[in-house]
Amino acid sequence: MSMKDQLLKAGLVSKKQVRKHNQKARKARKKKQSQRESKAVIEAREKAQTRARREQQQQQRLEARRARERAKEQAEARRRVDQILNAHRVRFRSGTQPFWHPSPDRRFLFRLDLPERVAHDVHIGKLGVSWRGPADADDPDVVLIPREIVERIQRIDPDRILFHNDAKPSAPEDALFSAG
C-alpha cells in the first residue's frame, strides 16, 4: 500500500487532493522527460569527451618525447664540447700575470695566474677561457682554448665560454707584447 492510500484510508486527505497531487506529479514527470537529452546527444558528447581526452594524452606524450629528445641533444652537446675541450686545450704552467674570469654561473670571479705570453694571447683574443665538467662544481676546471675552438664551441654551447676577446687589437700584436 502506498503512502497516499494510507493517508486516504486514515482520512487525512481527500480523494480530490490525491487526484490533484497525482496530476502535478504526472506533469512534473512529463516535463522532466521532455527536458531530458536524447541518447544520441549524450553519446555524441561522450564521444567528444573521449576524443578530447585521447588528443590531450597524445599531446602530452608528444611533449614528453620532445622534452626527452631535447635533454638527449643537450647531453650530447655537453659531451661533444667536453671532448673538444679535452682535445684542444692549451696547457701552461702557473705564471705571474693574474687573470680574473667569471664562474660558470656568472656569480663569482676566479683568479687564474698565467704566464706573460699566455696572458697576452688571452688579451688579444688568440685564446679564450672555457670550463669543463659540471657547472655546479665549487672549483670548475678552467681551460684555455684557441680562437677557432672558441668559435666552434660558441656555435654549440655559448654558455661554456667564460671569456673571449673578439675585438680586433688597435696595435700590432708584437708591439703590445714588447711594450708590456
Brief characterization of the structure:
Helices cover 58% and strands 15% of the residues.
User: Which geometry do the CA atoms define?
Assistant: rod-shaped
Strand content: 15-25%
Low-confidence parts, pLDDT < 50 over ≥5 residues?
none
Rounded radius of gyration (Å)? 40 Å
Structural class: alpha+beta
* Spatial gap, N to C terminus: 116 Å
Order of strands, main sheet, comes to 4-3-5
Instruction: Say what oligomer this is.
Output: single chain
How many strand segments? 5
Element-by-element helix/strand order: HHHEEHEEHEH
Share of residues in helices = 55-70%
Number of helices: 6
Main beta-sheet strand count, sense and barrel state? 3 strands, antiparallel
The mean pLDDT is: 85
How would the blueprint of this fold be written?
Layout: H1 3-10, H2 15-35, H3 39-88, E1 97-102, E2 109-114, H4 116-124, E3 127-132, E4 141-146, H5 147-156, E5 161-163, H6 173-179
Antiparallel strand pairs: 1-2, 3-4, 3-5
Account of the protein in words:
With 180 residues, the protein is an alpha+beta fold. It has helices at 3-10, 15-35, 39-88, 116-124, 147-156, 173-179; strands at residues 97-102, 109-114, 127-132, 141-146, 161-163. The protein starts with a helix and ends with a helix. It is built from six helices and five strands. The strands form two sheets. Strands 4-3-5 form a three-stranded antiparallel β-sheet. Strand 3 and strand 4 (141-146) form a beta hairpin. The mean pLDDT is 85. The longest helix has 50 residues, at 39-88.
